[in-house]
Structure formats: C-alpha cells, structure tokens
Write a structure and sequence with these properties.
The chain has 386 residues and is an alpha/beta fold. The chain is built from twelve helices and twelve strands. It is 41% helix and 13% strand. Helix 10 packs parallel to helix 12.
C-alpha cells in the first residue's frame, strides 16, 4: 500500500510514555503520572450539571462556528480576564485546540511555506505543520532568558509566520506585555502571521498572562477548555480571529469538522458560569502548592537548572550531567521508580536530550509521592550536591 510523505512524522513522545505507563499499571506496577498535562480534577460541577440537564434533548450538529451562547460566554471571559470588548462573531469553537491549529495553519499558510516555532515548545506544532506540507522552523530560546522567545530571533528567520505559547509548554515561563508586543511587531512589520497559543491562561502563580489581543486585533489566538477548565477529554477549544477571516475559517470548519461536539459545548457553557469560578480557582491553588513541592524537591536533589514556572503546570529541568539520553532515562525512571516523566526530546529535538519535563497537574498527594520516588532514584544514581 502506498503512503504519503506528509504522514511520515515523529511520534508525540508523551503519548508513548503514557501508553508505557498504562502497560506497566496493567501488570500491577504502581505508577505516578507526571508525564502528561492531565488535570487530576473532573470538569467543573456546573459543566456536568449543564450537560446532565441537556441529555434528554437532541444533541446533534451545531453551526460550524459553535453554539452562539457559548461564543458569547467566551467573549465575556475576555472582558473579565483582560478587559477586552470582544465581538463574539470573531470567536470560533473548535474540536480541541488541535482542530484550531489545523484551521489556523490551513487558513494562513500555503503548502511549502516555513513557519516559526519556539524551541523548546509543544511538539505537535511541528508534526501538524509537516502533515500539512508546511516546514517548521525552530526558533531557539535560551535558559538565560527564561526560555522566552526574543523578537530578533523572529526577525532573522525566513518564515511566513510564527506560533508562540505563553505560558510555554514545557517550561511554564510567560511573556509580559512588552515581550509579547515585540514578537507581534516583529511578525507584522514583515507581513508575517502571528498565532498566540494561550491554552494555559488562567494557570498563573503571580501576574496573569497577557493575551495577544491586548496587543493587536490582527492575530490568531487559540485557547482550550482542557487545562484551566479541567476538560481535556471533552475535546473542546476555541480561537479568536480577525473579523475579515471569520468566513474563511467558517468554510474550512464546515468541511473539515462540521462542528465541535455539541455535548462538550453545552458543558462548556456551564464551565463559564459564575458557579464554576470558585471551583476552578481552587484547582489553581492546588497547582500552586504542587509547584512549590516540585521546585523545592528538585532543589533539594541538586537539580537546580530549570526556569521557575510562571504558569501552566510543568517544570523543564536540566539533567544533562546525568544523561544525554533522557528518552532512555525516562524509561529507566518508569521501570525503576514507577514515575512517568517526559523526555525533553519531545520539545526540542536538537537540545532536549539532557532535559526532562515534569507535570504537576495531578493531586497533591500523588505529586508529593512522585517527587519522593524521584529523590530516591536520583540520590541512588549519584550524589547530586557538589
């Protein structure tokens, strides 16, 4: 059977780690999950209640851009979080942020064009671009700058546009208004598209995250109900596009996806209600405590080379003095310590061989147990304190 060169993409390594952890658990091994950004909490009670009330009504196709009530609720969220008066007509509800990436890349770039992606960064950007016959171009960031992408790196690259996440996955670092504005200007001054991945907004531990919509209306902004709203399995996201791009996106969405899942859209309306706010903020307080546990434990182990995470629920830690092959190291940690972690090669194919990403999205007791197991593993491997 013939196949396409477009389909010859790399695996999403964290999903392979997740499968290896599942297989280990199936044999009876106790595994602490610190590999995937999966909140340990369910969808908010208000979301589940909203869906339960709708189960006896027809849940079928919706209009391609999403249920109007949900789009209006998302627009109100931008007023609450950022003080932005957003026209809900510019909001497009998608089948997870993954569908939004497909729509954005298809709408903005022609086959063969080069698109900038920050490194380290979310690995699926690169693979989706390749599957669409686009060429991802790595834009390196550096630990000395907190792994924040710099405008000069964007200006110097031969690209048609760039996608940038803040808070970043895997580092958890965020761009301030000045840093984000510099990147937007670096693209727009050269006629390039700018896509802002904001799916970890709401998960911050100091100053809130800045939306690209606070800088310019001529950007694509992508977000999701997966992280802050604890709705990963519901597969629901959204994006905000310039007014003159709405019909273009609508045509693509009609043909590629028909619509986002109706049941998830009903639940999301509940998740945006005032009833859910206290519960969601309580989740963020748990992540803040987990963040403290992880960073203090790493420091106690002598693993001090990581950028302090401003948001999201990850720490990206340098263990290159112990291993230059963290793919193999992560397998050893799973089999020996019973902790699933993600090797840095997933996020940076050139420089990630000595890095690990730890997720602290699960329950605090699990995160604490995971760090205790890692301490035993690393302290047995070699004394880490000089």
């Amino acid at each position: 059977m013939r196949n396409s060169s477009r389909s010859d993409i790399d695996p999403f390594i964290v999903m392979d780690v997740m499968e290896a952890a599942r297989a280990a658990e199936a044999t009876g091994q106790s595994v602490i999950h610190m590999e995937v950004g999966q909140p340990g909490t369910p969808a908010p009670a208000a979301a589940r209640t909203a869906l339960a009330r709708a189960l006896d009504t027809p849940l079928g196709y919706t209009v391609a851009l999403g249920v109007p009530e949900l789009r209006e609720g998302i627009a109100r969220l931008y007023q609450r979080w950022y003080g932005i008066d957003l026209n809900p007509d510019r909001v497009v509800v998608t089948a997870g942020s993954s569908a939004a990436f497909l729509l954005a890349f298809t709408a903005l770039f022609d086959a063969g064009e080069r698109v900038g992606v920050a490194e380290p960064g979310y690995p699926s950007y690169r693979q989706i671009l390749r599957a669409l016959s686009l060429e991802p171009v790595g834009l390196p960031t550096h630990a000395a700058e907190g792994h924040r992408l710099q405008p000069d790196a964007v200006r110097a690259a031969d690209i048609a546009g760039a996608i940038v996440a803040s808070p970043n996955n895997p580092t958890g670092t965020m761009l301030g208004h000045e840093g984000l504005a510099g990147l937007v200007e670096a693209c727009q001054s050269q006629g390039r598209a700018f896509i802002s991945d904001e799916i970890y907004h709401g998960l911050h531990y100091g100053a809130r995250a800045v939306s690209a919509l606070e800088v310019s209306d001529e950007v694509y902004v992508i977000n999701s109900f997966s992280k802050y709203f604890s709705m990963t399995g519901w597969r629901l996201g959204w994006m905000v596009v310039p007014q003159d791009h709405v019909r273009r996106i609508e045509r693509l969405a009609q043909n590629m996806f028909i619509c986002a899942p109706h049941a998830a859209q009903i639940a999301a309306i509940g998740a945006l209600s005032g009833e859910a706010e206290a519960e969601l903020e309580g989740n963020r307080a748990v992540y803040a405590e987990n963040r403290r546990i992880v960073t203090e434990a790493l420091t106690a182990m002598g693993l001090t080379h990581f950028a302090p995470p401003d948001g999201a629920f990850y720490v990206y830690v340098d263990v290159s003095h112990l291993s230059s092959d963290t793919l193999a190291l992560s397998r050893e940690i799973l089999s020996t310590a019973g902790v699933a972690v993600t090797p840095g090669l997933d996020f940076d194919a050139l420089r990630g061989g000595g890095m690990l990403r730890l997720s602290y999205a699960r329950a605090t007791r699990d995160v604490a147990e995971g760090m205790s197991r890692l301490a035993v593993f690393f302290n047995a491997r070699q004394p880490l304190r000089a």
